[in-house]
Amino acid sequence: MTRRVRRATVISTTDIAPHLKRLVVGSDEFHDFPADQQGAYVKVLLPHRGQDEVEIDLKADKPAPRRSYTIRAIDTLNHTITLDFVVDQHRGIATDWAKQAKPGDKLAIAGPGPKKLQDFSQSQYLMIADLTAINAINGYLQQLPASANVDVIIHIADPNDVIALDTIKAHSNHSVNWLVTAQPQTDVVNQITVLLSQYSQKPLIFMALEASLLRTIKDLAIDNYAIPREKIVCSAYWQRGVDADGKLTA
After folding, report:
1. DSSP character for 104?
2. How far is CA 138 from the centre of its chain?
3. pLDDT at residue number 3
4. Which residue numbers delimit the FAD-binding FR-type domain (predicted)?
């Protein structure tokens, strides 16, 4: 990804759902931030625990903790970007910081990095996500062709975590289904199986999920439905039982 690091501050925070907190972050250094990057990701650099300032040297002896987040919105006039943080589901330096974040808090933004999904020419898409990847879905729904058939499944554990997406009403072939379940390994896989069984052509599949669920669906698509590997775009956003630093969690 682009190695440029921009200093920023928190402009506003909003609890948009029980497990989602939206932060608008701004900086004069965003004056040349590209405007077409909804759905792309940035690296958020945070202060070390107990500190206010952020180390922006990525090669420092003690570099800043950093995590990847997908862009929800970009305001080129006010030089801000909007990011959503999952809170109260997992513990970690980024989620803990976001939960307590307030206007004026300092951070830094590196990127943007490339979009995972680059092919917007297909006629059938299947997109699968969880709470961590809502903004990737949100960004791509604004770019997929109106003529394409698009099935989106977003699985969540709490029905109150359903949020509005920037869908385009004229794109009537785009269907978003929020699947509320505490057993995604069963319920999500079952729903994917139904959809794959119904398609008359091979879809392009985009997935941004927990690692083990992603592997299960990928194997299902390849082994049972002969989906070519090149038509599967996937990213393991997190791994159950392991934190973002690779340490085992309780």
Report:
1. T
2. 9
3. 65
4. 3-119
The DSSP code for 211 is H
Reply yes or no: is the peptide bond before residue 47 cis, omega within 30 of 0: no
8 A C-beta contact, residue 77 and residue 98 = no
Q: Where are the alpha helices (DSSP H) in the chain?
A: 93-100, 134-141, 184-198, 211-225
Work out the angle at residue 133's Cα, subtended by the Cα atoms of residues 220 and 52, and round it to the nearest 5 degrees.
140
d(CA 200, CA 186): 24
CA separation (Å) from 1 to 100, 140, 144, 218?
28, 19, 23, 25
Q: How many helices (H) and strands (E) does the chain have?
A: 4, 11
Regions of the chain where pLDDT drops below 50:
1-2, 241, 246, 248-250
Q: Is residue 97 within a helix (H) or strand (E), and if so which, with residue range?
A: helix 93-100
- The answer to whether the CB of 227 falls within 8 A of the CB of 204 is no
Contact 124, 201 (CB under 8 A): yes
pTM (predicted TM-score): 0.91
**Cα-flanking dihedrals φ and ψ of residue 237, to 5°?**
-75, -25
| Nearest in space to 132 (alpha carbons), one of 56, 244, 45 | 244
